[in-house]
Amino acid sequence: MNLLAVENLQARHGLLQAVRGVSFALHKGETLALVGANGAGKTTLLRTIAGAHPASGGRVRLNGTDIDDRPAHQRAAMGIALVPEGRKLFSRMTVEENLLLARAAGRPGRWTVDAVMQAFPNLQKRRRHLTAHLSGGEQQATAIGRALMTNPDVLLLDEVSLGLSPLVVDQVYAQLESLMASGTTILLVEQDLRRALRVADRVMCMLEGSIVLEGAARDLTREQVTEAYFGLGRATVAGIPA
Amino acid sequence: MMIWLNQIIQGVLLGGYYALIACGLSFMFSVMRIINLAHGSLAILAAFGLFVLASRLGLSPFLGLLIVLPAMAAVGWLLQRTVLERSLRGGLLVPILSTFGLSIVIDNLLFQQFGADTRSLAPYIGDLSYSSWAITDDIDIGQLAVLTLAAAIVLLGGLQLFLTRTSLGRAIRATAEDPDTVGLIGIDARRVNATAAAIAMVTVGIAGAFLAMRATFNPYSGGQQLVFAFEAAVIGGAGSLWGTLGGGIVLGVAQSIGAQIDPQGFLITGHVVFLAVLFARLYPSRFALQLPRLRRQPA
Domains plus CATH for chain A? Predict the structure, then answer.
């Protein structure tokens, strides 16, 4: 059974239709990378799945249960965690306080403050520092750790490399890859095609609110994804119409 | 000299009450970004609740708090869910207008029920209302005033500990900072805000009790209390709990010294200090630029 199933999902920003009938499924333990240009609707799609943005149509199912009418805090309690674009940490609180907040989701599991510190060793010495005083990489690690503290079934990661230096991005991805290896189910929004193709099991490309390309990462070439990314030729792969 | 020292001590003690009344206002502003103009009226509502319990049931005001405070918490919860939450959706100005309207409703309902007579809880607390400790021949310290200051310190300190050491306190701080993001980690912002409003109303109830024990009140006393609360909160830096204590004390000392200079100067000195602080906060750069010039001027 699919862990997360999205069917004909639609979302708007006022008059603008940001997500147009998106459908896909995410299997347990899988890493699915969502790529696309700025304004393609990736962030809105993730926020809509997490309940932070209202859907204007379609369905979202988690473990077979409809969660369309559930607010964001209930979806977090059911097992969806979003690491939002821009991290959105609580800047007047320490790293530890940010992590402890996520216990409100009330889901038992292996993720505790100590477990996060082990997974992200760079946070250990910054544990009692305000997050406003952290480096970009440390802030991203805190944001991922905070989401993990909800012990999610599905982790949604929105542009984790945004605003970080290449060296720090490598460090964050090294930590993410160990999460992927441990069986965490991840839906990852990423602008860096090379990196998306390397870490993901499957890749989806969005253009103007729709999925225009979907396939196993090992079967796709960078050129194919680039073509779909910019809407060149509106190619179809794996049977998904443009 | 002793007269001035006495005025400062009395001012500090008076500041305890102002900190108490400002506590809820500051808390609601920092957590929910709401300036609650019904704050004073709600304190008077609590005072009347205690008065009814004391005068009709013979219940001590301190025991009466066991009934009135949970009732105020319920009022806060309902207020948040029915008025404030909806008002906030219309922007920051709408809650100001709606709470202003609410204060008029509360004042007039109290007037309809109790009339315009002035009342006090002082007759129901025995010697405490007038007992004092003589420190020197010239300085006496009222026991109720000391109790009020102690209550303010305990309440503000307790709130500070609650906000920093408990999971609900952390959730309240996080919701204050970013109500949209807290949902992503499983926190129900609506529930947290309603709880915060309930807590704020409990502090309002405590302030109303001390007001009614140390002074007189009538259905229209809320406006004056709101002004004191607002001034103390602004002087202390709205949203800062320990700042609120400091703001209350500064206001109390200013009023006390003003009263010593001129019997009519009690209120006006407080207002002047409030305006000076407000000016310094609104125009910090201009104020800072003037300071060195002022310092260089010969005495």
Answer: 30-42+73-229 (3.40.50.300)
The pLDDT score that the predictor gives to residue B285 is: 64
Beta-bridged to residue A158, according to DSSP, are: A189
Residues A77-87 pLDDT 10s:
999 999 999 88
Give the number of C-alpha atoms closer than 13 A to the C-alpha of residue B166, restricted to the C-beta side.
9
Enumerate chain A positions whose Cβ falls within 8 A of a Cβ in B: 50-52, 71-73, 76-77, 81-82, 84, 88, 90-93, 97, 100-107, 146-147, 149-150
Residue A242 has pLDDT above 90, yes or no: no
ipTM > 0.85 (yes/no): yes
Please identify which residue in the block is written with the tokens 């905070």: A146
Q: Is A28 exposed, middle or buried (0-12, 13-18, 19+ CB in 10 A)?
A: middle
Dist CA A74 CA B16 (whole Å) = 42
Domain locations along chain B: 2-296
Residues 6+ away with beta carbon under 8 Å from A6 = A22, A23, A24, A25, A49, A58, A59, A60, A61
Average pLDDT over residues A52-74: 94
**pTM, to two decimals:** 0.86
Please give, rounded to a whole number of angstroms, the shortest distance from the CA of A52 to a CA of chain B: 7
Write down the CATH number for the domain with range B2-296.
Answer: 1.10.3470
Interchain pair B185, A146: CB under 8 A? yes
Is the pLDDT at B234 greater than 80, yes or no? yes
Which one of A101, A103, A157 makes the best mutation probe of the B interface by having the most chain B beta carbons within 10 Å?
Answer: A101
List residues bridging with A24 in a β-sheet.
A6
B136 part of contact set with chain A, CB < 8 Å: no
Q: How confident is the model at residue A142 (pLDDT cuts 50, 70, 90)?
A: very high
Closest CA to B122 of B140, B148, B103: B148
The distance of Cα A115 from the centroid of its chain, to the nearest Å, equals 20
Rounded CA-CA distance A80/A157 in Å is 11
Average pLDDT over residues B24-47: 92
Q: What local confidence, expressed as pLDDT, does residue B287 receive?
A: 57
